[in-house]
What we know:
MRET, 2Fe-2S ferredoxin-type domain-containing protein, flavoprotein, Rossmann fold, about 35% strand, 3 domains, oxidoreductase activity, Riboflavin_synthase-like_b-brl
Amino acid sequence: xxxxxMYLIDAIIRHGPVVREFRLAPEGGAPLPPWQPGAHVELAxxxxxxxxxxxxxxxxxxxxxxxxxxxxxxxxxxxGSRVLHDEFEPGMALEVSLPxxxxxxxxxxxxxxxxxxxxxxxxMLPMARALETAGASYxxxxxxxxxxxxxxxxxxxxxxEDRVRTYATASEGRPDLGRMIGPWQPGCELxxxxxxxxxxxxxAAATAQGWPQRHVRVESFGAxxxxxxxxxxxxxxxxxxxxxxxxxxxxxxxxxxxxxFVSYECKRGECGNCYAGVVSGEPLHRDVxxxxxxxxxxxxxxxxxxxxxxxxxxx
Length: 315
């Protein structure tokens, strides 16, 4: 369980049609806790209707003693981003965890490729700044559906045109990921953040270019409702429990709410800590951490779903 402290919202800045940047100052003038590029914080807050939310957001940077995060409004999500957009204003308080980091920048690399999809630019920016400060060789590639969704422009433009390539995929088409990544050589590192479909494509392209898996680090957006998701009944064999889970809520969240003993950490399908064996049912895998063999016998309930109405897990 992360430690939390109170922050006040100092400013909210719009970036494009669906992203708002929150600048947060520790209450009482306390100093910001230390953090590293790639870190995220968890926000805990309550809606006007009384619903409790706990959402994780990457640290974009700090400005004048304030922590910067960016929140993308998700209409099909679990509601936390909509609450932050619609109900919170400057001067209001939020509970914010100490910075956590499971997506670290590898020191000492000879060449680093950074790829961001949409709001996945948020952890890439502090990584790029750190590499720039160190005088390291790197390239940042930023993909979005259209130019209006290439958010936080002042941050990536400050890195220089020679360091950043942007791609508006709706008008320009999807770029050649293999060419973008290039062949692996000793000392090369690849970091990517974005939706799971992009990360799967990046992993496949990197493998085709000879990149060892340990040199490819990814961070996904976490559980989201998908169009094909339907209400799901989850049977937990060892616990003797049956849970009905609606689209938009992860299976892991339903288990946590039901006080099921389950191990977890990232909640984004990256670490594999919540891995559970599948007794029956057909999983829809949306993680970015399991190999083909692991997927034949289990799944990550933090982000994955099921193809049919019933799923039985060995928990």
